[in-house]
Specification:
- The protein is an alpha/beta fold and 155 residues long.
- The chain contains 7 helices and 6 strands.
- A hairpin with a 2-residue loop joins strand 4 and strand 5.
Length: 155
């Protein structure tokens, strides 16, 4: 098995986009207490030992002077996005900064964004060639798919 994903979800927080929809059964969301939500979000982000954040997200950009993090600027750091088939499976190929080209399972610019954040986080403690090899074989986390398929809002 590939433990690449476990490394990120256990040791690192990388944030790609802010949460904009609110579940109805939580008091914070019922009252749409955005201030409490974003304060909690900031506390969560600050608790990570390694932070890699999307500097172009409207909320996260407000934290640039407040949070010590590695900041990704997707519009300039991620280039040459293309969609390719590798062994008849969908992959997104892109260039990340001066680190070279990466192939990641799945189609979409959001795949490149998520992968770029993960790559930068992993590069703090792993060799870039090992990351390139591992991310090529990574196909998401099982938890992600179990949670989505069990959701009453998943169609």
């Amino acid at each position: 098995g590939n433990n690449f994903g476990k490394l990120f979800f256990q040791k690192v927080i990388f944030i790609t986009q802010r949460i904009v929809s609110f579940p109805k059964k939580n008091p914070i969301w019922e009252n749409k207490n955005y201030e409490l939500f974003y304060d909690s979000y900031k506390t969560f982000i600050k608790s990570a030992p390694c932070r890699v954040l999307n500097a172009e997200d409207p909320f996260l950009a407000t934290l640039i002077d407040e949070v010590d993090a590695h900041w990704l600027y997707p519009s300039r750091d991620i280039q040459n996005i293309e969609f390719v088939l590798i062994n008849d499976e969908p992959h997104t190929r892109f260039t990340l900064r001066d680190l070279g080209s990466f192939d990641v399972w799945g189609f979409g610019k959001h795949i490149a964004l998520d992968a770029a954040l993960a790559i930068l986080a992993a590069n703090e403690s792993m060799d870039i060639e090992l990351i390139r090899t591992n991310i090529l074989n990574f196909k998401g986390t099982r938890y992600e798919y179990v949670k989505l398929s069990g959701s009453p809002h998943f169609h």
